[in-house]
Design goal:
Elements lengths: L2 H4 L2 H11 L13 H15 L14 H24 L11 H10 L1 H18 L6 H7 L1 H17 L5 H13 L2 E2 L4 E2 L4 E3 L5 E2 L4 E2 L4 E3 L3 E3 L20 E2 L4 E2 L4 E3 L4 E2 L4 E2 L4 E2 L8 E2 L11 H13 L1
Parallel strand pairs: 1-4, 2-5, 3-6, 4-7, 5-8, 6-9, 7-10, 8-11, 9-12, 10-13, 12-14
């Protein structure tokens, strides 16, 4: 290293001591972002064998391949969950990791069944979808909802940090931000998807369809006597069965409920509930359409005169 820069190292080390940021507490490390990303890749291979592989997975080798992948996921994820549950008291084993991992592995067939309904919803809801394989291979929402449904299982089991790291990994890849705490029913479809935000305490029913740019967010945050935000509580809206929400609409508030069979048009801003079977649209004050050719001809005529 150039000695010119060595003089800055002591101050940087002091900041580590004073501000924090050192990922080691008596030989205990925090969960690894890189490891969690690799686990997400491995989980997608488990959920969709053959779709996230460079080479085809032959039926005759499926059992062997699945056993190998399950063992790899369990080993890697167990280590990351163990790190997360020991935050705050790194020296004391908690005993929480093995039951979390058992229930997570037991949930994989259930998650696959939910994903089957999501794929079906995309196939039925998008006229551009020609084959179901196309949806699995190329639709970003499938990757986002697959990781969210897996992360939700870990979130339900009380695993800290890891679920959020998983959904943020998917967010970075797809542009779809769904918190692992959100409860999402079957036959869920996010068309296009970029810019969609679904908050932690959202409850979404069955056969709900969202378009790009939709936000299901919080209206405001309660604060304590010291002026600090109160954590927890119901902050995000509920969306009942068979609701469609079109692009760039924003729906806020923990008490807000979008009634079943409703349609929310594009660019709508809502902070209150709407009853079932509602059509909510944003009406423009004025839309003017003119003929560009007529304008050009008038300009030529004026120049000639």
């Amino acid at each position: 290293m150039d000695k010119t820069f060595v003089q800055y190292v002591p101050d940087l080390l002091a900041s580590y001591e004073n501000i924090g940021g050192l990922n080691n507490r008596d030989a205990h490390n925090l969960p690894s972002k890189r490891a969690v990303g690799q686990i997400c890749e491995d989980l997608l291979q488990l959920l969709f064998p053959g779709f996230h592989d460079e080479d085809a997975v032959q039926h005759g080798s499926l059992t062997e391949v699945t056993l190998e992948r399950m063992a790899r996921v369990v080993a890697r994820l167990t280590e990351q969950v163990r790190r997360s549950v020991r935050i705050g008291d790194p020296k004391r084993p908690t005993g929480r990791t093995p039951p979390i991992m058992r229930r997570f592995c037991q949930s994989l067939p259930e998650v696959r069944e939910l994903l089957r309904t999501d794929i079906e919803a995309a196939f039925e809801g998008d006229p551009a979808a020609i084959r179901r394989e196309e949806i699995i291979l190329s639709y970003p929402f499938i990757e986002a909802i697959a990781i969210q449904r897996l992360a939700h299982q870990l979130h339900q089991e009380g695993a800290p940090l890891i679920p959020r790291m998983m959904t943020e990994w998917a967010h970075g890849r797809t542009g779809i931000d769904i918190h692992p705490g959100a409860e999402i029913g079957s036959h869920f479809f996010v068309d296009h998807g970029t810019g969609v935000v679904v908050g932690e305490t959202c409850r979404i029913g069955q056969r709900v369809k969202l378009y790009h740019g939709v936000t299901l967010g919080a209206r405001s945050f309660a604060k304590d006597d010291a002026g600090k935000i109160v954590k927890g509580g119901k902050r995000h809206p509920d969306v009942e069965d068979r609701v469609t929400i079109y692009p760039n609409s924003t729906i806020l508030g923990g008490e807000t409920v979008i009634g079943a069979n409703s349609t929310i048009g594009a660019n709508v801003f809502l902070m209150h509930s709407v009853p079932p079977n509602s059509l909510v649209v944003h009406e423009e004050k004025q839309l003017v359409i003119r003929n560009k050719d007529a304008k050009a001809k008038a300009a030529v005529l004026e120049w000639s005169i």
